[in-house]
Amino acid sequence: MTSASLSRAVRGTVSGLPGGFWWLWASTLVNRVGAFVLTFMSLFLTQELGYSGWYAGIVVALHGLGGIAGAPLGGVLSDRWGRRPTMIVAHLAAAACAAALVVVTSAWGIAAVVLLMGVAMQAVRPSISAAIADLVPESDQRRAYALNYWALNLGFAIAALGGGAAVFLGYRALFVADAVATVLCALIVFLRLPETRPAAAGGKDGDTDEAAEGHKDRVTALDVLRDAPFRTLVLLNLLVCTVFMAPWVGLPLTMAAQDLSGSYGAVIAVNGVVIVALQLLVTTVIGKRSPAALLTVSSLLFAAGTGATALAGTPLAFGATVVVWTIGEMVHVPTNAAATARLAPEHARGRYQGVMGMSWAVAGTVAPVLAGWIVDGPGPGVLWLGCAVVGCAAAAGYALLLRRALAEDGGEQGDGNGNGDKGGGQTPSATAPAVERAADGA
Fold it and tell me: How many whole angstroms separate alpha carbon 427 and alpha carbon 135?
């Protein structure tokens, strides 16, 4: 591919999306640029407040636990209240929690604040994902989710670099900056992003809008899980996310066992560098390819990258494994988000994205515990072999169970009760009122 053709491909990736999406993209970037709390929480607790590493680990796990509740809650609220008010309230709640950490020093107080922060941060993600589906035509949703994910990682990279200011200003100053950035994010949504939730449609036989809306409000997370193709997508995503989360605990422990812990920072930084540098190119390459095929390939990349970690013995080799599973991440995250939007009917987009977000939160809570236990017990080799097996199993599931449901040429979409609804997940941008990723994601 020549530089000219690459330039055209990248321009094609970022062109043609509605203005409302770009305001949402900007809010995501601003939010992540100021995301200091989780990045530096462990250091703040151990170095500045004198708590143990064990307590710091518990606090981080509580953030994930809050996310398990926050994701479905945010999904319900975004369908009932609307995307815009849910985003604003959740962002302001997260900002209040970040500000509270400046003054709260007791063990129980910090734990409670971080738990609530996990709820708030995860609650906003379904509304963002649903808004993207509201604004962007189905044919462009995959690249829209990829661009939003790129903003998340670009902002995170900037935040990591800006974290050096902690040496001079202290961790509390970074937490204040986090709160300010999150409030600014809420202001962007309030000032520039109109409500995107599809209006309540009038029912048949004289049903009122209120009756139609009341029917929608009766859709629960259990109703969403009765949609068989979506339930399969959630369970397979849980497997993939478990594999994806394992290296964040297993990799430093594995490298430490080989006396390479000093190189871990550089090795894991490869993940962010590759995403920032290559996400737009990867989005161009995957183009209009089958979602089921892309999810299969991404699962195999996760399996190959994590499995090869068992064979690595140098920082360069460990870095190469990170490159492999990072490419899998870049393919999987936007494709999975677009697949969720495709299967969700308009009136339940928030709930579908909330249930999917819950699978990420569960994996983020369970995988670190499992990874640490396996490394300390059976050993790192068992962990990485297990990751390879689980990744391959997920790939087989996508290929065998979801190929038809996710077909681009008219796959059926669930209505929350396992019934099909052709085209129910698409809202043309011309009729959209004016969009993570989120999917956190990871």
Answer: 7
What is the C-alpha separation between 28 and 22, in angstroms, rounded?
10
pLDDT over 80 (residue 155): yes
Short-list 352, 326, 323, 328, CA closest to 439:
352
The first and second tokens of residue 202, run together, are 């009038």
* 254 vs 247: CA distance, rounded Å: 9
Q: What is the DSSP letter of 414?
A: B
As a whole number of angstroms, the distance between CA 292 and CA 144 comes to 18
Burial pattern 227-260, b for ≥16 Cβ within 10 A else e, equals: bebbbbbbebbbbbbbbbbbbebbbbbbbeeeeb
Task: Tell me the residue type at 331.
Answer: V
DSSP annotation of 261 reads G
Q: What is the pLDDT of residues 9-57, one digit of tens each?
A: 667 677 789 999 999 999 999 998 888 887 788 778 888 898 887 788 7
Query: How would residue 145 be classed by pLDDT, with cut points 50, 70 and 90?
Result: very high
Q: What is the reported pLDDT for 7?
A: 67
62 within 8 A of 111, measured Cβ to Cβ: yes
N- to C-terminal Cα separation, the chain: 31
Alpha carbon dihedral 233, 239, 240, 243, in 10-degree steps, equals 170
Spatial distance between the Cα atoms of 320 and 329, rounded to a whole number of angstroms: 14
| Residues 6+ away with beta carbon under 8 Å from 279 | 146, 149, 150, 153, 330
Cβ distance 115 to 63 under 8 Å?
yes
Average pLDDT, the chain: 83
**Token output for 167:** 């040496």
State the DSSP H helix or E strand holding residue 232, giving kind and residue range, or none if neither: helix 228-245
The reported pLDDT for the residue numbered 123 is 93
DSSP string, 338-377: HHHHHHS-GGGHHHHHHHHHHHHHHHHHHHHHHHHHHHHT
Average pLDDT over residues 292-304: 97
Task: Give 372-402 pLDDT, tens digit per residue.
Answer: 889 888 999 999 999 999 999 999 999 999 9
Question: Can you tell me whether residue 322 is helix, strand or coil?
Answer: helix
Decide if 298 contacts 240 (C-beta within 8 A): yes
Cα–Cα distance list, 271 to 144, 267, 305 (Å): 21, 8, 12
